């Protein structure tokens, strides 16, 4: 079944809502009213121009006995995949399971950055698909927080500026609009940036920001309207197989027979993979990731672009009149080292280590001096999952047929969700990927990469690679000498 445009789908289902003030969709109950201004649509009856969606959880509802696709994870990745499967006509045969609440996320633990330039063409294409989806949702009136404010990448060294020139060259074949800027041009356009130690910058107008929480809710609403069933507060115990193929999903509330299983469980993905027989390797590990929020700043420019000081390992953006800042430190701190994971997103809040965050804070204040006078609102520390090579982990596993993975998004899940979901949905429905993702495929890893000791050692280095200069023949320094020949000299 050919997918339908978002606009046509929304118009069709809004009209259905007009006829049915209260609609029960499987497990969740969605009530619509004219109170509030959550969603606004054009070319629909006046009484439906303002729609407020709420849903309630009913623990007494029994699980279905069978489904084509079971998705584990009700975040933006899972909601987007459910939406695209519904577009292919699989809505009534798709189930989303979450151990917490669908779309429930820590609002202060998301940067919402969407950068089009990625290390590989496949990642760039996926991000482009995400931008198209969010832009269309925003045009239809959904509250997505989507804003193409652009981004400014800063260079402190000549090597970084050389890399920007290469990015400018690559932009021609990738059809990405971008411009090299001198220090004088940066200072004239963005006077709040300290340019004294800069060599130049790269301006990318297409880059954007969005609100992952509201996008997740919007996609979940659209998916549910086409029959996707969502079950909350449910634990997936293990995935059952038959002849190395997905057969069923065992939960704490019963077993669901299914043809496909998709692991979108974030930093729980590795633990979930180990609950399958044969074991499915999903080499991701959570590390600490910080988000700094200031109080509202007077006269701050809401259209301020995202500023990425790559050599300082920090970034900035404006959100609701405040500055949201974060970074990818060169030496990160892995978490949950003993393997004991929190039972829900709400319980994953980590203690703030100001000594660890201090170097990033120093770089933030240095680059944007107006932060010196800003009042701190909160500093949040939450776990984010990374893969051993700092790339996304996608695709069908080599151990079990019809077992798909979408994780390791390195705090950039909103940038990947739309494109990843579109890609995986086509792969699941047609049996083959629409285009190759070799550099992102989960099958690129060997069993050693799933070793806990290796992951803990490697993850200290990986987050910093995200902003590191990609010198030719660069190699990781950590996670070595774990498996050597007997003649190999050891200290």
Describe, in plain words, how this protein is organized in 3D.
The chain is of the alpha+beta class and 491 residues long. It has a domain at 149-206 and 285-386: D-Amino Acid Oxidase, Chain A, domain 2, CATH 3.30.9.10. The chain is 27% helix and 24% strand. It is built from eleven helices and 22 strands. The chain has helices at residues 6-19, 76-87, 121-139, 158-174, 183-189, 212-225, 269-273, 354-367, 413-430, 452-458, 462-465; strands at residues 22-25, 28-33, 39-40, 50-56, 66-72, 94-97, 113-114, 151-155, 179-181, 200-204, 208-209, 229-231, 236-241, 246-251, 254-263, 285-294, 306-309, 314-319, 322-327, 376-386, 393-396, 403-407. Strands 5, 6, 12, 13, 14, 15, 21 and 22 form an eight-stranded mixed sheet that branches. An eight-stranded mixed sheet has the order 9-10-8-17-18-19-16-20. The radius of gyration is 23 Å and the shape is globular. The N and C termini lie far apart (61 Å). Residues 430-484 form the FAD dependent oxidoreductase central domain. InterPro entries: FAD-dep_OxRdtase, FAD/NAD-bd_sf, FAO_M. Pfam families: DAO, FAO_M. Residues 68-427 form the FAD dependent oxidoreductase domain.
């Amino acid at each position: 079944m050919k997918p339908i445009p978002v606009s046509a789908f929304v118009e069709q289902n809004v009209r259905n809502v007009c006829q049915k003030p209260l609609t029960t969709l499987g497990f969740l109950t969605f009530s619509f009213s004219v109170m509030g201004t959550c969603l606004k649509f054009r070319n629909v009856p006046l009484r439906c121009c303002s729609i407020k969606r709420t849903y309630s959880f009913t623990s007494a509802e029994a699980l279905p006995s069978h489904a084509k696709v079971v998705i584990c994870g009700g975040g933006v990745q899972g909601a987007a995949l459910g939406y695209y499967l519904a577009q292919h006509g699989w809505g009534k045969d798709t189930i989303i399971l979450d151990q917490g609440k669908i779309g429930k996320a820590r609002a202060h633990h998301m940067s919402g950055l969407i950068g089009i330039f990625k290390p590989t063409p496949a990642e760039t294409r996926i991000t482009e698909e995400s931008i198209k989806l969010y832009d269309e949702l925003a045009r239809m009136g959904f509250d997505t927080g989507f804003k193409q404010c652009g981004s400014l990448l800063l260079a402190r060294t000549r090597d970084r500026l050389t890399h920007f020139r290469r990015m400018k060259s690559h932009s021609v074949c990738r059809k990405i609009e971008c411009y090299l800027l001198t220090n004088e041009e940066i200072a004239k356009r963005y006077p709040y940036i300290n340019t004294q130690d800069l060599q130049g910058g790269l301006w990318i107008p297409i880059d954007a920001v969005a609100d992952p929480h509201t996008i997740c809710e919007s996609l979940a609403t659209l998916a549910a309207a086409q029959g996707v069933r969502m079950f909350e507060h449910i634990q997936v115990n293990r995935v059952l197989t038959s002849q190395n193929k997905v057969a069923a999903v065992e939960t704490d509330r019963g077993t669901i027979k299914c043809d496909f299983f998709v692991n979108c469980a974030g930093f729980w993905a590795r633990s979930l993979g180990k609950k399958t027989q044969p074991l499915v390797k999903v080499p991701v590990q959570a590390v600490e990731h910080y988000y700094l929020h200031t109080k509202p700043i007077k006269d701050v420019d809401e259209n301020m672009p995202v500023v990425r000081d790559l050599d300082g390992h920090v970034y900035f953006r404006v959100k609701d009149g405040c500055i949201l800042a974060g970074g990818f430190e060169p030496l990160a701190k892995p978490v949950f080292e003993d393997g004991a994971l929190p039972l829900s997103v709400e319980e994953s809040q980590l203690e703030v280590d100001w000594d660890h965050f201090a170097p990033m804070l120093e770089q933030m204040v240095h680059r944007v001096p107006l932060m010196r006078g800003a009042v701190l609102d909160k500093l949040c520390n939450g776990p984010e999952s990374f893969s051993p090579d700092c790339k996304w982990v996608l695709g069908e596993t080599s151990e079990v047929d019809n077992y798909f993975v979408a994780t390791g998004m390195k705090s950039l899940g909103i940038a990947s969700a739309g494109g990843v979901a579109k890609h995986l949905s086509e792969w699941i429905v047609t049996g083959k990927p629409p285009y190759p993702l070799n550099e992102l495929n989960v099958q690129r890893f060997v069993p050693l990469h799933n070793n806990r000791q290796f992951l803990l050692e490697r993850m200290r280095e990986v987050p910093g690679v995200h902003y590191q200069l990609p010198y030719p023949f660069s190699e990781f320094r950590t996670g070595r000498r774990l498996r050597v020949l007997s003649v190999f000299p050891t200290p």
